[in-house]
Amino acid sequence: MNYKIIDKEKYYRKGVYRHFTEDCKCSTSMTARLDVTELVEFSKKTNTKFYINFLYLLSRVLNSRDDYRMGYIWQEDKLICYDVINPIQYVFHDDTETYTPVYTTYYEDYKVFYDNALKDVESAKQSRDYALDAANHPNWFDASYISWLSYDSLNIELPDGYLYFLPIVNWGRYREENGRLMMPLTVRLNHAIADGFLVANVYRLLQSAMEEFCK
Question: Residues with Cβ < 8 Å from 164, sequence gap 6 or more?
Answer without folding.
Answer: 72, 158, 190
